[in-house]
Design brief:
MscS_channel_2nd; 10 strands; 5-stranded antiparallel beta sheet; 3-stranded antiparallel beta sheet; Small-conductance mechanosensitive channel; 785 residues; alpha+beta; 5 domains; single chain
């Protein structure tokens, strides 16, 4: 399995805990000193590669060269900043003149010397970084070549008699080596005259940590989660993570205490140190594998289960997780014993065959169990859809098992063992990644929720809407889960020879922190976080300015509501644009690059975004010229209503049936629009009717004037008007006008006036009906004859 020695893991963990102090101490050292140290490390690694190095030394050299590259990159960046300051001071002095003062000349000479030294150091630092990268690539290539040779090596097939004949021939020598290794260790212990009681104390402490303390810690954590942890999802994920931590740390501490007691008692000779370290690593990894798979399955506590796994599946697969951990322990210890004893290649091949067979049996048993569960479920619910993903994974696993079996029979033991170990590592890594992703999602979504304590504090303190808080929690969850997936992907490829353990991973993270060059721009996690922070600060300032503008300044002006809305919208979009430019500038993207990007997008805007651009420009024209304002009563085509909102893309019009008509701004600019309130807020009603020619026209005009005067909605100024429009076909045609306060009440007022007029004309016996029509049929003369 891809496991590293415990000492290296402990040092890496110690590095993580002491990282702030180490970085603070490094920051106090001058960049030139750090660059000199990095150059010395590069030269030392280069000289070491001239000699023959083993795998462990190669991994240490790789970690050292990557750390040197990180230091050289950081020191070069600091020196480049100092060089930029010196150049700025030289530019501030201006060009050298003939009659320059003595102090200015001396300062210019000093700055010029500093420029030369810093420029030389920056170039040297960049060269060191290139050399370090070349050495790292060389180490990677050598590791990859050795890995390729290992998996491509072929030995006699284990089904042939010659394979086992070689094992039996080498067995006496291997037994003598094992006896000698054991005898040397016992002899060293006897000669050291060690004390028994420290070893006994270490054994008792290890038993106490491994059993009662571990159980008590699990119960204590579960009791705390039940009583104090917020949210069911957070409790569930925290319980799984706590179970993995206790299941891993407790065995590690138990074995470490036991080994410390043996060393204290002088009962652990130097020749057994490698096996002791291997025992610590194997125990820790096996317990981690068992704990992480157990936390994922949660066989005895289904209500605390994170993954959507059925109870029968969890019960069926739990024994296989224990077998996986046991096989991993046995495999690692066999490899350690073979290395410590120095067994023959035949014996090592035999142990490899044993490991492959154990892995194959475990994989086949697990796949058969999963297939049996799927078959039972299909019989119980024949119409239920089966998960295609699980079937595809099972098919791939069967194909890998068959390929491994074929490789075993053909003698490619390295390839077969690698595939089986990779499958086991993938299962453990996938389970750990799933638990961490679920925990990250549960924690982010629960903490950053609108109804949580933090969400309410953010809403009150920053004025954020509840939806914004929820969206931030979802986005944070996505970012953390994506980061975990990338880290898991990198750890998955560790067995391929692309990494050298935790130290290399930390060194790679250090390189990532220095930034990645993309199109001439250095993109780093710190720069991204800084850009996001600047963007949020800029948007907060825009929000505060717009609130001051709308609540304080604009009410003190003589502008109407529509004008205030226009000013507020323009201020909002301009502020957002400035905030985005500020954030991009914090990432190192200057205004000239933004202009270049906009010019590159102009072709796409001209073709694909032409309509959107037209609406945007039309919206700016509407906000600037204000031919249509909020509150206007307009008619667009056959629809008319109130203008409720004007944005840079469209305008919303509230119709009489309480629906909303959304009109693109380009339609309001390029086509005819009737604005009934542009010149003034008044509305007008028009009434037309006809009376017979013998009717009293003066009396009709008086009735209409009295009706207008009696209606409260009709204004006295402008005064209503009654006109005789024409006389035709024996009837007098009247055309009457009156004004109301708003076009919105014109329709109802006109209806009320018509109702009163009909009642008055009926009382006065004035006919306002249509002219009676008479139809005559005239026959032809021939028909009459």
């Amino acid at each position: 399995m891809p496991i590293r020695p415990s000492i290296r893991a402990a040092l890496a963990l110690l590095l993580l805990l002491l990282a702030p102090r180490v970085y603070a101490q490094e920051a106090e050292v001058s960049p030139a000193t750090r660059l000199a140290r990095a150059e010395a490390d590069v030269r030392a690694v280069d000289r070491a590669l001239d000699l023959r190095v083993d795998d462990d030394a190669r991994g240490a050299l790789r970690e050292r060269i990557i750390a040197a590259r990180v230091a050289a990159t950081a020191a070069t960046a600091d020196l480049a900043d100092q060089l930029a300051l010196v150049d700025a001071r030289l530019a501030g002095l201006g060009p050298a003149g003939g009659a320059e003062a003595g102090d200015l000349r001396a300062q210019r000479q000093q700055l010029s010397r500093q420029h030369m030294v810093l420029d030389s150091s920056v170039k040297r630092g960049r060269l060191i970084g290139v050399e370090a990268q070349q050495l790292a690539d060389e180490l990677d290539q050598s590791v990859a070549e050795r890995f390729s040779q290992t998996i491509a090596a072929r030995s006699p097939s284990p089904v042939l008699p010659g394979f086992w004949v070689a094992v039996l021939d080498a067995l006496p020598r291997d037994l003598r080596r094992a006896e000698g290794y054991l005898a040397n260790g016992v002899d060293a212990v006897t000669r050291s005259r060690g004390r028994v009681w420290p070893a006994l104390f270490g054994l008792l402490a290890a038993l106490a940590i491994g059993f009662p303390a571990r159980t008590a810690a699990q119960r204590l954590g579960q009791r705390f989660l039940i009583e104090d942890a917020p949210g069911h999802r957070v409790r569930r994920s925290a319980a799984a993570i706590w179970r993995v931590m206790i299941g891993t740390v407790a065995p590690f501490l138990a074995v470490a205490v036991l080994m410390a007691g043996l060393r204290w008692a002088r009962l652990l000779p130097t020749t057994w140190e490698a096996v002791a370290d291997a025992l610590t690593v194997a125990t820790t990894y096996a317990c981690f594998a068992s704990a992480v798979t157990g936390a994922l399955l949660m066989r005895n506590q289904p209500s605390w289960r994170v993954a959507p796994i059925a109870d029968d599946v969890a019960i069926e697969l739990r024994p296989y997780s224990w077998l996986l951990a046991a096989i991993a322990f046995v495999s690692y210890m066999l490899e350690a014993l073979n290395g410590a004893i120095g067994t023959s290649p035949a014996a090592q091949s035999a142990t490899h065959v044993l490991e492959i067979i154990l892995h194959l049996a475990l994989l086949a048993g697990a796949l058969l169990a999963v297939g049996r569960l799927r078959a039972n479920r299909a019989e119980e619910a024949a119409t239920a859809p089966m998960r295609a993903g699980l079937g595809a994974v099972a098919l791939v696993a069967w194909l890998l098992a068959l390929a491994t079996l074929a490789a075993l029979l053909l003698g490619f033991l390295g390839f077969a063992l690698f595939v089986m170990q990779l499958i086991g590592w993938s299962v453990v890594l996938a389970a750990a990644t799933y638990l961490l992703m679920a925990a990250a999602d549960d924690l982010a979504v629960t903490v950053f929720a609108r109804d949580s304590a933090l969400g309410r504090a953010l809403s009150r303190g920053l004025g954020l809407r509840g939806a914004v808080v929820d969206q931030f929690g979802v986005l944070l969850s996505g970012v953390v889960r994506l980061t975990l997936a990338l880290v898991a992907l990198g750890l998955f490829f560790v067995p391929f020879g692309t990494g050298s353990g935790i130290g290399t991973l930390l060194a790679r993270l250090g390189l990532l922190a220095q930034g990645v060059q993309v199109g001439g721009i250095s993109v780093s996690p710190g720069a991204i976080v800084r850009g996001i922070a600047v963007l949020f600060i800029g948007l907060a300032l825009v929000r505060a300015f717009r609130r001051w503008l709308e609540d304080k300044y604009l009410p003190a002006t003589d502008l109407d509501g529509s004008a205030r809305n226009s000013v507020g919208l323009v201020a909002r979009y301009v502020g957002i644009a400035l905030a985005v430019i500020w954030a991009l500038a914090s990432l190192g993207i200057g205004v000239e690059r933004i202009a270049l990007l906009l010019s590159a997008l102009s072709v796409g805007i001209g073709f694909g975004l032409q309509a959107i651009t037209s609406n945007f420009v039309s919206g700016l024209i509407l906000l600037a010229e204000r031919p249509i304002k909020i509150g206007d009563w307009i008619r667009v085509g056959t629809d008319e209503g109130d203008v409720k909102r004007i944005s840079v893309r469209s305008t919303e019009i509230a119709l009489a049936d309480h629906s909303t008509l959304i009109v693109p701004n380009s339609e309001l600019i390029t086509k005819s629009v009737l604005n009934k309130t542009l010149a003034g807020p008044l509305g007008r009603i028009q009434i037309q009717f006809a009376v017979p020619l013998e009717a009293d026209a003066d009396r009709v005009s008086a009735i209409v004037a009295e009706t207008f005067a009696a209606e409260t909605e009709i204004l006295d100024d402008p005064a209503p008007k009654v006109f005789i429009d024409s006389i035709a076909d024996g009837r007098i045609f009247f055309n009457c006008f009156a004004h109301v306060a708003s076009p919105r009440v014109a329709y109802g007022t006109r209806s009320a006036v018509l109702t009163v007029l009909l009642r008055s004309f009926r009382k006065e016996n004035i006919d306002i009906g249509t002219i009676p029509q008479r139809m005559e049929l005239i026959g032809r003369k021939e028909d009459m004859d």
